[in-house]
Write a structure and sequence with these properties.
Structural class: alpha/beta
Shape: globular
Order of helices and strands: EHEHEHEHEEHEHEHEEEHEHH
CATH class of the largest domain: Alpha Beta
Strand order of the largest sheet: 2-1-3-5-6-4
Distance between the termini: 25 Å
Helix content: 25-40%
CATH topology of the largest domain: Rossmann fold
Number of domains: 2
Length: 277
């Protein structure tokens, strides 16, 4: 029940019809007895900078979930940002500090990393290939660097995207080995598809799956379907893998911690979620 003490989390983006967070957070808050609510707020890009400032003038605002098309714009509106935000060049979570400053973080990559670790993947000292260096690929690469991987190979069809991400990573993690230019997956402990390729049967795959060793852990970011054509192919190779929606459910506990709410597990979130597709 919403009452005068209810905390507000703004879910800001445009358009809002595909938003899934309210259908996960709000059932969880009800289940856990947390007096808070996530409200979708459709805001066009031209109004967003002023709106973000306005929403944080509310006294019962707990934070904001930020989604497309505002993740990049948000970076320039923050008073403080994590290294992950600076590397990714985007932000999907904002809260107001006690002194009124707006603090931002990016949890797409954190969700990916938590999922790999929960499944027994070893990241410290690992060799990793990330294919796709856009927003989500950059966020994952940043979180992998923070998790202690030893080697990051980056590939993007737009070579300048991979080169730019390499420069940002080495600025913040100078001891990290970073290479660009090849999507050959042979010899890596973890391979990440951060592109939409291989979403449907018949699509060209982002990587030559025959070059992936069966003991390689493989991660996917596409959420349209659980078992993409790419994941079906690596499953046939005998690889352990992570589906795209795992990244979503794994990052929500990180959001809750960031906003100061009681944390939970992906299993609890999945059990209470009221998703519709």
């Amino acid at each position: 029940m919403i009452n005068g003490n209810t905390g507000l989390i703004a879910h800001i983006g445009y358009p809002t019809h595909a938003f899934k967070s309210p259908m996960i957070y709000n059932p969880y808050f009800e289940h856990a007895g947390v007096n808070a609510v996530v409200v979708p707020m459709g805001c066009k890009p031209e109004h967003y900078p002023a709106f973000l400032q306005s929403v944080f003038s509310l006294e019962n605002i707990c934070g904001a979930l930020v989604t497309m098309p505002h993740k990049v714009t948000t970076v320039g509106l923050l008073d403080d940002a994590t290294a992950t935000v600076k590397i990714a060049g985007s932000c999907n979570a904002v809260r107001r500090a006690k002194d009124g400053r707006l603090v931002g973080d990016m949890f797409d990559g954190e969700g990916f990393v938590r999922g790999v670790r929960r499944k027994g993947g070893q990241l410290e000292g690992a060799r990793v290939l990330v294919v796709g260096c856009g927003g989500v690929g950059s966020a994952i690469a940043a979180s992998l660097a923070a998790a202690g991987v030893a080697w990051l190979a980056l590939f993007d069809a737009r070579a300048e995207s991979a080169h730019g991400l390499k420069a940002r990573l080495t600025t913040h993690y100078p001891r990290l080995e970073v290479t660009t230019g090849s999507n050959d997956p042979a010899g890596y402990d973890l391979v990440v598809n951060a592109t939409p390729m291989g979403m449907n049967d018949g699509d060209p795959l982002p990587i030559d799956v025959t070059r992936i060793a069966p003991d390689t852990f493989v991660g996917e970011v596409v959420m349209k379907t659980e078992m993409t054509a790419f994941l079906k192919a690596v499953q046939a190779r005998g690889c352990r893998y992570q589906v795209g929606s795992d990244m979503l459910f794994e990052q929500i506990p990180a959001y809750l911690e960031f906003f100061g709410f009681p944390t939970t597990t992906p299993d609890v979130l999945r059990s209470v979620a009221k998703l519709s597709y």
